[in-house]
Amino acid sequence: MTDRPTDFNNLPSFKPARRSLFSARKFALMASVVAGLGVAAYGLSPAPRSLDSFSTPAHAQVDTQVKAQVAAPAGFADIVERVKPSVISVKVNIKEKVAARSDDNNNNNEDSPFQPGSPMERFFKRFNGPDGMPPGMRGGRGSGRGAVTGQGSGFFISADGFAVTNNHVVDGADKVEVTTDGGKTYSAKVIGTDPRTDLALIKVEGATDFPFAKLADGKPRIGDWVLAVGNPFGLGGTVTAGIVSASGRDIGNGPYDDFIQIDAPVNKGNSGGPAFDTSGEVMGVNTAIYSPSGGSVGIAFSIPASTVKTVIAQLKDKGSVSRGWIGVQIQPVTQEIADSLGMKTAEGALVAEPQADGPAAKAGIQSGDVITAVNGTPVKDARELARTIGGFAPGNSVKINVTHKGQDKVLNLTLGQLPNTIEAKADIDQGDRGNSSRGSDVPRLGLTVAPSGSVAGAGKDGVVVTEVDPKSPAAERGFKEGDVILEVAGKNVTSPGDVREAIVAARNDNKNSVLIRVRSGGSSRFVAVPLAKS
């Protein structure tokens, strides 16, 4: 299905305005307003007229005042003329299995990390790749389900042909071609990709004097002008303008989300293209949009230049990115969790579980510890910790500030290397748990629990949840049958009695909530559950 072409014969006609009997002054004022410029914008105010002014023909006065008041506003033409030659259109041929997947899923964005049809899945729209091509650009059944052709954008970062684009533009491609602003086409080779930040480095062969763009050193401010240049819908060399709407955006793409939000119109095919500041430097790489319709609605996201510099340097050096790793499962510190731990502010990253034999475990970091700083720099939240640690190379030594049971500690830690894949194995059999023990009700939480050893497949540690009151505080916070409670208020539990005692102790300490460490599947997390008032 393709978009209906515009019928230019049926467009509304615009007729020149007929000069009326308005005075010259009124006509000049109207002209300035129509042009979008008020008289006051230039600091001009009507001056008293002398009798001599009436000797000048009216039309001459009109022309003079219109020219004086309707000056052309400052535009972006000079910047565009300078930076546009560095931007390229990227065309890829993608392998047959990717083409078939795209055709079978009817552009359903299978690579999205969210459930199909969910609000976040609709939020997370890619510009290009097999999920983001406009109608008519996908391989279909009529073409024998062959390789698919996709288009994106990119930009040169050096005269010898190194260029930046998005990972999802070239992911799975067996052929990459680029077209310059001057219309020349060159073959390109993928040097390296980083799916975690959605960046890719390609090398264009055929010349050594390509015009290139510079990555900005500073961080843009909210409200700064931004120019997006790219290849939307295959219409290469398109320039749009807007402002920086926000920064530090997390769109659920991964632990390193730190996007710049812009409102310059970008669409499918802009992916991988640059977002320029008014100095002509690249402030970010356009990578995703919010789009219920698939087109621009004024919300787009760019990868900051600081991230691009770090990633591209490693891709150029070795074709991949190595990140520091401390080996912990972390989660945000909510206000309820902070209150449960006796913290004054809800900041830092809560360690749900350190990985066995990982750097954190070897340094003495334990479950329930809150990481508050790295090398003296405060850690605001769990996402900031992930970005900070990921910015270090493996093997580096860092100082980690932690709050351990109310006490502040500083630990020395040597970073490991972030594994490419981390497999989580379920310790709990989600199938038949047996009916040997219904368990004991835990008051005020809405849970029924039993010793893990008494329930088949639950393991040996903690107590297993055998029933959850659907109207209870525990149910509201995601507890479900089969979860294993390991700690309550910082104390290990092995029986329902241990859970009761920990809750009573929390009540006696005037706690409004109790902090529970729960294992679900192969991962652990802390949950703050409010205590009933009666």
Question: What does this molecule look like?
Answer:
With 534 residues, the protein is an alpha+beta fold. It has 4 domains: 24-69, no CATH class; 74-321, Thrombin, subunit H, CATH 2.40.10; 324-417, PDZ domain (Pdz3 Domain, Roll), CATH 2.30.42; 440-530, Roll (Pdz3 Domain), CATH 2.30.42. The chain is 19% helix and 30% strand. The protein has 12 helices and 28 strands. The protein has helices at 24-34, 58-69, 77-83, 96-105, 119-123, 167-170, 305-318, 335-341, 359-363, 382-390, 473-476, 496-508, and strands spanning 87-94, 125-126, 148-156, 162-165, 173-179, 185-194, 199-204, 225-230, 238-249, 259-262, 274-276, 282-289, 300-304, 324-325, 328-332, 349-354, 370-374, 377-378, 397-404, 407-414, 416-417, 440-442, 447-451, 463-468, 484-488, 491-492, 513-520, 523-530. The strands form 5 sheets. Strands 22, 23, 24, 25, 26, 27 and 28 form a 7-stranded antiparallel β-sheet that branches. A 6-stranded antiparallel β-barrel has the order 1-3-4-7-6-5. A 6-stranded antiparallel beta barrel has the order 8-9-10-13-12-11. A hairpin with a 4-residue loop joins strand 6 (185-194) and strand 7 (199-204). Helix 1 (24-34) runs parallel beside helix 2. The radius of gyration is 30 Å and the shape is elongated. The chain starts with 23 loop residues before the first helix and ends with a strand. Residues 1-56, 97-144 and 421-438 have low confidence and may be disordered.
